[in-house]
Amino acid sequence: MGRSVLCESFVEDYLRQLSRKAGVCMGLLIGQPSASGKDYIVHASRITGQDEEESDESQKLNATVASQQALDATRMLPGGMYVMGIFVIHPKNVFQEQSLLSSVKFILMSMKATFDANPLLMGTCEELEKSEKLVLYYSSSSKTQICKTVSLATENPAVLPCDWKFVERSSTWHKLNVYFETDDVYPLKQKSEQEQYDTEANLTESARKLRYQLMDAKILFGGEPKPATDPVEAVPANVYLPTSTELSPNDAKIEHFEGTMKFDGIISSQIYIHSQSTFGEAERFIVADVVRSLMSRIQIHCDSLVQTEDTTTQDKITLNELPRRIYFPVRTQTGFPVQFSDYLFPEESVETPIGRIREILDIGVAVRDLNCKVELVPVVKEDERPTEEEEVWRSKSKEDDFEGKLNMPVVGGLVTVIVLLIALLVYYLMK
């Protein structure tokens, strides 16, 4: 027996509209897998740049475009949501036309390679998907659909049966919120034989180490641990990282680095899980959301940097401000609870993400639909940022500063004693 899929009915409306407008197109299927082998599809998005008539060369080009859009879409998904596969709208049955089926397999393998090259985006959930991706064929003529899974576990992907159903409200969705705070210092590594630092490599390494910490973390729901097999419920979640209480002489070592990176801030994590999920799956999705959100910010930030070949010595103190997270609804009018997210730099206007959301996910949102107040970044003016000289001066003048400062608790105690003495003196004089 193959996997089964429950898909929201508004996705069928979207496919029907695409079949009337485009006739032939391909897109992404976004949803959540489960341990029971049942998948939930909550969104579909057309892949831009696909041609109706495809040659071998255009297939490779389209695979690149599709893989990049799948990567961009994943950055916008909360933990627990994945690009589950693709849909194909075509007058010919994709499973009967070998050229179309070969193109689909090539695109899926290209997507897998792209996600494998970006492991910190957590683009796949191997424990639940088991290397299988969905392929939904939707007939542009008869408006019927056929869904199968393609197993990417082998070099020659196999096509397996799958049961697909369009339903109204496929599940009840629980929302879990977590605010994860990080305040760590990591060694700063230089590029080989160069004086400048690789910003993306150092930030990525910090995210990688954080992922390992989160994998060993303890997550409490409603202030207490929950059995991994218990069905999930909407309760607050807290993440506690492990700390080493003892360090043996064999584990202790001294390393010298040219610099360090202080990695601190608060990450907003917001996941949605269907009612059949367990607390064990919720823990997995929370970790995936924090790591994915952090890595998405790093990639977006580094993509925005001006890449130069300047190898001159950089400033001793460099500030990298990652964009903050904003949320938007998948459906703005039906009351569907699931939300996706995007990222906004401090200097960007609230309207900036609207076009990007439309282009990547084909979701139309207005400014009023965006929740931009979950993460707030303090405004620091350039003339308020500490320079290297200021930092050195501060560290050297700490003792001098201390001598010129009053010890407020001591002063408060002296004032109290003086007031008490005056009160006693007045009391005896009045007798």
How would you portray this structure in words?
The protein has 431 residues and is of the alpha+beta class. The chain has two domains: 4-167, Cytidine Deaminase, domain 2 (3-Layer(aba) Sandwich), CATH 3.40.140.10; 174-245 and 256-381, no CATH class. It is 34% helix and 25% strand. The strands form four sheets. It has a seven-stranded mixed beta barrel with strand order 1-3-2-4-5-6-7. A two-stranded antiparallel sheet has the order 8-11. Residues 307-312 and 388-412 have low confidence and may be disordered.
Q: In whole angstroms, how far apart are the ends?
A: 99 Å
Strand content: 15-25%
Total strands: the figure is: 13
Spatially, the strands of the biggest sheet line up as: 1-3-2-4-5-6-7
Report mean pLDDT, rounded to a whole number.
83
For the record, the count of structural domains works out to: 2
Spans of at least 5 consecutive residues with low confidence: 307-312, 388-412
Query: From the helix content, strand content and strand pairing, which structural class follows?
Result: alpha+beta
Seen as an oligomer or otherwise, the chain set is single chain
The number of helical elements comes to 10
- H-E string: EHEEHEHHEEEEHEEEHEEHHHH
Shape, please? Answer: globular
What does the largest sheet look like? 7 strands, mixed, barrel
Q: What is the CA-atom radius of gyration, in angstroms?
A: 28 Å
Transmembrane segments: 406-430
GO biological process, one term: intracellular protein localization
Subcellular location: Membrane
Keywords: Membrane, Transmembrane, Transmembrane helix
